[in-house]
Amino acid sequence: MTKHISHLSRRQALGALGGGAVALTAVAANAQSTAVEPLSTITTPRREFGPDADPNVYFWDPDLVAAEDGFWGVMQPNASIERLWTGARWAEGPAWNSVGRYLIWSDIPENRQMRWLDEDGHVSEFRKPSNNSNGNSFDYQGRQLSAEHLTRRVVRYELDGSVTILANMFEGKRFNSPNDIVAHPDGSYWFTDPPYGGQLYEGAPDAAGGPSNAAGLLNPRLGQPPEIGDWNREMETATYRVDGSGTVTRVATEADAADPNGLCFSPDQSVLYIASTGKGPGDTGPGGNGEIIAMDVAADGTLSNRRVFSDCVVDGIKCGPDGLRTDVAGNVWASSNAGRNVGYSGVTIWTPEGTLLGRIRLPEVCGNICFGGPKRNRLFMAASQSIYSVFTGTQGAGPA
Asked: Which residue among 16, 286, 303, 333 has its CA within the 20 to 30 Å range from the CA of 292?
């Protein structure tokens, strides 16, 4: 179960395909797949996660795995991991609405956002098209924030139903494909801008000659609104801040956190955490190392003291981070993409000092997480095709 199986992460795989048409021409017609049949379970005997599954928890859920005794202080002993829904192509960006008592998330390839109601578990299509939105969150005024791949921008859904474009360009250049966004109590919004959305499955590739369409064989206009298809990636990967006046500042460069993905603040907003993942389509930059980067946040929004918070290696297995959240004690919760290393995908939990507390094992790669529920003590996990949850012994920091 702990054997290290060589694999391409989802981000590495996208990067490998990012050249698009060039790679397509090099595949022999009679090539055979080297894919390994994935294991179907991570517990013995095999367990089911769905609402009709047989009881499997006698005290601690068997897929809560402690690394330190402190792990049991943040988890709930008689709570089971539950699969709430399945049916996405790639689920991402869960966010909890405290007033409406519902969870939303993105199904990026299906160009839609979904909603789960706390009162009866009903799931419905919330917004379509979503412009291939990825990360979502709610600000301190209860307004939904979304990072859109297709339009290469970040937006805010106002309480009256209108939509505000928070940012779509920096220094006259359009963003690559904003990935995740969080609010700060000072009224600013912080977001990451890797290149992952610049490809067919989760957005639109560059125009001919662009980094993700170098050979020009892909048509970025197919199936898209008329305004889509003319953009090329122009900038390095970076992390940005939009202040209350709409001024956009690059707060972390590619050298600080290459290919930035999920991000979150410490409970007192003194530290910003950024998941620095692998290369995306057409990415010619240095690429991230699957680490969580921490930086100190000054009152004026500037960052300093860059350090590697965690390399996200557990038992010799790379548990690639994506979405990030902190709890009220400052522990960092990170979604885990361990590829075919069955039993290591799910969520890892780290102390504020970067010590692994434990992990939550899921049968699918986990892309993003958030705390929610009326008491904000329920962890929601967007994992590949499904949404999972588990009640915890702590509360999430921040509004969503």
From this structure: 16
- C-alpha 30: how far from chain center: 36
**Nearest-angstrom CA–CA distance, 50 and 46:** 13
Low-confidence spans in the chain with pLDDT less than 70: 1-41, 56-58
* pLDDT tens-digit readout, 151-208: 999 999 999 999 999 999 999 999 999 999 999 999 999 999 999 999 999 999 999 9
What is the pLDDT, as a whole number, of residue 25? 34
Beta bridge partners of 334: 324, 348
CB atoms under 10 Å from CB of 236, counted, come to 18
Alpha carbons 322 and 15: distance in angstroms, whole number: 16
Cα separation, 204 vs 225, in Å, equals 11
Which residues are within 8 A (CB) of 151 and not within 5 positions of it... i.e. 6 or more apart? 131, 168, 228
Q: Which long-range contacts (CB under 8 A, 24 or more apart) does 363-367 make?
A: 363/40, 363/41, 363/42, 363/49, 365/10, 365/336, 365/337, 365/338, 365/339, 366/322, 366/323, 366/335, 366/336, 366/337, 367/90, 367/91, 367/92, 367/322, 367/323, 367/335, 367/337
Can you give the pLDDT at residue 21? 39
CB 144 within 8 A of CB 104: yes
Beta pairing, strands 169-170 & 332-337: unpaired
Give the DSSP letter string of 291-354. Answer: EEEEEEE-TTS-EEEEEEEE--EETTEE-EEEEEEEBTT--EEEEEE-TT-TTS-EEEEE-TTS
Sequence-ordered list of residues with C-beta below 8 angstroms from that of 205, at least 6 positions apart, any chain: 20, 198, 199, 212, 213, 218, 220, 281
82 membership: H or E segment, kind and range: strand 82-86
pLDDT of res. 314: 97
Closest to 62 measured CA to CA, from 47, 74, 84: 47
Residue 285: per-residue pLDDT: 81
C-alpha distance across the termini of the chain, in Å? 34
Among the residues of 95-240, which ranges form H helices? none
- Could you identify the residue written with the tokens 């991991």? 81
pTM greater than 0.85: yes
With H, G, I as helix, E, B as strand and everything else as coil, classify residue 11: helix
